[in-house]
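Subject: Sanity check before I submit

Could someone independently write out the structure tokens for this chain? I want to compare against mine line by line before I put it in a report. The sequence has 135 residues.
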Amino acid sequence: MLDYINNYFAYFTFCVAMLIEFSGLLHASYLIQFAVAAMSGKPIESNEEPRQGLASAFFWGRCLVSLAILGFCFAVTFQALFNEQTTLWGGVPASVAVIVWFLLMCVVGMLEGMQIAFFAMAKLPESERGDSYWA
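---
Independent answer below. Compare away.
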């Protein structure tokens, strides 16, 4: 994605993203990556050296903090949904509100994944792309 940084606003956005990455706010996603890799039985390929000592402790500490923040966010969201403190239509039961919330989060996650896939596919030569209808 670095080749899309061609102006100062893009550079600023990149710096903010790197700051968020360093903070560890979203490190819970690494736990999902490790879980999926373990379930698939395939190792995670990386060009980086394995983390050792203080770097490993710092990484896992950020994962733990990220997981705690995620849990707090879930608790606040569910509390608001079950106490009907949302702007969802009146008369919608709390259980339906939770289901709608999960469905919307799934849609957002799929859209994020599609965006990453589309950018990756844009760089592939046509000879390496699939030729089926869905490819």
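---
OP: Matches mine. For the report I'm noting this point. The mean pLDDT is 86.
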